[in-house]
Write the structure tokens for this entry.
Amino acid sequence: MNAYLHAIKIKWRNSAFVRTFNLHDEKAKGRSCFLASSVLASLASQLSGGIFYTGFLLSYGINIVNIGIITFVPTITRLLSMFSPFILERFRRRKAILTTLSIIANIINILGITLLPNIVTTEAGRVIGFTLLVTMSSAISAIIDPGYSAWHSTFLPNEIRADYFTLSSGINSFLTQGIVLVLSLITDSFAGSPQQLVIITGFRYAALVVGILHVVALAIPKEYEYVRSKSKIKISDIFTLPFQNKKFLLTVLLVAFYYIGSSLTNASINIFLLQDVGISYSEINLINAVYFMFFIFFGKMWKKFLKKHSWFKTFAFVMFLQGPTYLMYAFVTPENYTWLWFGIRLLQHVLGVAANTVLASMLYVNLPKQDQTNYISFYNIFVHTSIFLSMMLGTFFLSGMDGNVLNIFNFEMAGVPILLAVTGVAQIIAGGLFLKFNKTLIPDDL
């Protein structure tokens, strides 16, 4: 019995989890802080965003097009990332400024939006107010996010990156979605009652507290020296340096293309599910809550696949499979969602274990060792501009459809389903591009 327990103890000490997260090694301790911060950030995001945010806006009479505007307009502020190196590279230590600005952004985004409807009573005024508040918060994030990424990149070397993102995503999903599922059941129990809005508003106040705790956890890891190749700081370096590193540049372009095709329904999918299909809060969050189980059952399989193949080849394979799921998603209706929507989402969970790990790693795959704030800012600008353009196109398309439908093979398809179908085609094309440039983009250190 003692020998058996000893063997388990040794196996635990040599496990990927202990190797990735522990409090003995300085960098593993930092990753442990990132894990705690990630869980808190996701919980705050779920409480103040996602399906509850959509419900909050719908409760105040905001329609699908205006929700799209509120959602996509602030993403253009990501262009402000170009000023991030110009500001942050002047500081040898950035922890204090990043922490302070992050707390301010949380207060504006969560508390400001929660209080605004009590101050502004017209729909037009609320749309403008919501948009301005989210834009202010997003602008601050655009400045500080490259600083956080440059600070934390040292803790995520290539040999540990797949384990980190796979494990953290699974743990994050288990803890966050479990809590949110319970809260969704509470929310659904007040369906059709004014108390539902009171419950959702209460979630937002809780999100503010959790969001601030997330920032505190993020500030604990050690701050290492930032390596620079130049003594003089220039804004133009953001755009000139990446063009001197073709692997990094091409990686950014491929990821940006993926997001252009995959963000068309970011602002409208929850409205489609709630209003058009008639799915409840608890059903949506139930399917999200079981995501962690797919990390348990499929995490090891995808890690082996990643080790055998490259980041890019893995992502291509996933896109070839995931694209068709969005084509099927376009045919979800109130009559068939109990089997079709649930089936699609479960299949997307299987693929999501790999897709989310690869996407989270893409920034770091060909990231140079020097001037990282510049490269990260360039990455953020391109990726978020792609998301902005995609969401803008999606919102304008829905506005142009104005509730009309297209008859496709005797199936009446509305605006959001059409966009889902376009997303499916775009992901298949993205898979082809990632496969085409796979050999070109293999990192030099592999």
In short: The radius of gyration is 22 Å. The CA atoms of residues 44 and 207 lie 4 Å apart.
